[in-house]
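Problem 12. The chain below contains 449 residues. Write out its predicted structure in token notation.
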Amino acid sequence: MDRLRSYTSSTASEIPMDANEALNDFYRDYPHIIFIRLQWQDYSGVMRALVLPIEEAFVILETEKQPFHVPPLLSNCSITNQYIPDASARHIQWLVPDWSSIRLIADPQSAMVMCGVVGTTISKPVPNRDLCPRRALVDVVRQAQESWNLEFLVGFEVEFQVMKASSATGEYVKHSQGPGNFSVSGLRDPCYRYVQQCVQQLLVLGVRIHGLHSEGKRGQYEIALKPLPPLQAVDQLHFVHDYLKDTFAKHGYMATMAPKPLISDPHTIGQHMHLSLESADGDHETSFLAGILKRLPMICAFSLPHTLSYERRLPFLAGETVCWGTEARIAPIRKIEASHWEIRCIDATANMYLTLAAVLGAGILGLAGQEPLLWPDLGDSTIEPNTREEPLPRTLQESLAWLATKSDDFATIFGLPLIQRYIELKQYEISQAGGMDPVKLRELFIELF
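Solution.
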């Protein structure tokens, strides 16, 4: 256990790791492992994997003759599994495993490693990381440390709904009916034993868990993860998602984090993020928060990245206006305590590396411009409602329009090529998903997320 935790205590951006040594150490401790999943999250939020026999991974690392080559899926493939026209002819991509992220998974014969993506084009054959979401997050964290002496801790609330296939129609339906919302009756649901089973194993595997409870409806649960540094926090989030999905699939169920699985059910599923700011050089809280609020409509292009995401644009869910407040769950940003916020306008369809990079980067831009906090604390009952509040984008198209209009501002965070590529893919994705049957589209989201 101590050795496994040591693999996940640092990132490739902090302590260079020898890939052969890392894999050999892991295999020595877990010789039953047969397969390695090299996983990456694409711009649509889909988790993808190249599965290698562990012997082949050793061969590739030892000979250094072959990269882990994959099709150009990162920034070219839509949620409907279709490429942007001509994308495959223009982009070549391969995986760069971060061996510090290696973990055992629910499949007892397998382990997973999270990867960055390096790309080239025919016209520019020099390898670059410009489009890589992990690179974007690593660069933002580095900039915060070097320029502002800032460090961050990030924790996620993993909400999920247990579904099953209807014996009559084959369509997905909720496993259970009845009240949830912290009710003990929700813990008497037959599928709760699998939730406990997952949590027990995740704890053994070194995942830091604060607690769990029944969510809004029976059969819906939330697992609160303890905070970690940004990159490790997102890696851990994806590991927990995979573990839950793999475990429930073994029992014939589907654990989904899709934002609104069923048209007929008003209940939704979020992916709230807790962010703590730690500064050794004074109080940066006000300008950091102002930077996020000023750019929240642009951030929504990453944090609410699909048309279905905007069905959560309501008070007490993702929020509907640009605002914040101390313990104000009606707002998209809830302040917990000094320099600790809950970002609520996020769901699990987001590429969380890009989303977190956008949030942190927006805060850094607020610091750089010493931006004033123009939005009042809605948690203070003595303050009149702010008539200046602007609405959050109502659609993905509106979010993308904000991002495109202010791309020069965000380009200092991501670089312009990533923003342009992201917008291009999302616009193509809107055109493809818009033509799908609404029920089939939600079933696709249930399966992918």
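Discussion. The two ends are 29 Å apart (CA to CA). Students who got a different answer should revisit the alignment rule from Section 12.3.
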